[in-house]
Write a structure and sequence with these properties.
The protein is mainly α. The protein is about 55% helix and about 0% strand. α1 packs antiparallel against α2 (about 15-25) and α2 crosses α3 (about 30-35).
Length: about 240
């Protein structure tokens, strides 16, 4: 029960959000939402010290050093779930349409089967929201399912990555073969590298010009000073020739 454990750590310790997220296997935004009471419902805290997963000394060490990674004293008992639709607490079931609408709007590449498994809903509900024929469509507001507590950030990221990979393979198969096989990321990196090299070159040229101007100014000043000293010396007088 990572969410319940994270809730207890947020309420009863001075650990950072990063430490709690890492220990509970959650995304830092989930922990932030719990701390700000933005989650769909308030979780009942679960004491990891009482469960034997953490010690008070381990928590104290983490509070004194924000960079410290908490070490689990005893692994929790793994709870296995039988096959079937994803269970969603009654208090959160009314939030499902909002989460479905958010996925349909922000990740259209995700299939209905993936949404159904992730949120724990039916394909008929997904189709009704997509076609805007849902009975409560006027009150449905797209909201992040992670913030609503319908799934974890890791589960959402995994589903989106899988769907994007499948869509990417399809696009590559249909797209004509181009001479440039580099990805957009590689192209962007190359553009940034070229821009950085150009900036370095421009800075070096500017430094050289400034150095040349300073040298020329110093030379002119030296010449002017030398001319003034020469002009101030007395000229020798010629003695008249003797007969």
């Amino acid at each position: 029960m990572p969410h319940a454990t994270a809730t207890w750590l947020v309420d009863h310790t001075g650990l950072s959000f990063e430490q709690i997220a890492e220990f509970c296997g959650l995304h830092i935004l989930e922990v932030q939402a719990m701390a700000d009471d933005l989650a769909g419902s308030k979780y009942t805290g679960r004491d990891p010290v009482h469960a034997g997963e953490l010690t008070l000394g381990e928590i104290k060490t983490g509070e004194e050093n924000p960079e410290y990674s908490l070490k689990m004293h005893k692994a929790p008992v793994e709870v296995t779930r039988t096959k079937g639709p994803r269970y969603t607490p009654v208090s959160k079931r009314q939030d499902k349409p909002d989460g479905i609408a958010w996925i349909l709007r922000n990740h259209p590449e995700v299939s209905d089967a993936q949404i159904s498994k992730l949120i724990g809903t039916t394909r008929n509900t997904i189709g009704a929201i997509r076609e805007r024929t849902h009975w409560n469509i006027q009150n449905i507001q797209p909201k992040d399912p992670v913030t609503l507590g319908l799934c974890s950030q890791r589960e959402l990221d995994a589903v989106v990555a899988k769907a994007a990979k499948r869509a990417g393979i399809t696009e590559e198969a249909e797209a004509p073969v181009d001479g440039d096989t580099r990805s957009d990321k590689d192209k962007l990196i190359e553009e940034l590298r070229a821009e950085r090299e150009a900036n370095v070159k421009a800075a070096a040229e500017a430094a050289q010009e400034a150095e040349a101007e300073a040298w020329l100014a110093a030379k002119r000043a030296a010449e002017e000073q030398g001319g003034e000293e020469q002009g101030g010396e007395e000229q020798p007088t010629e003695e008249p020739p003797t007969e």
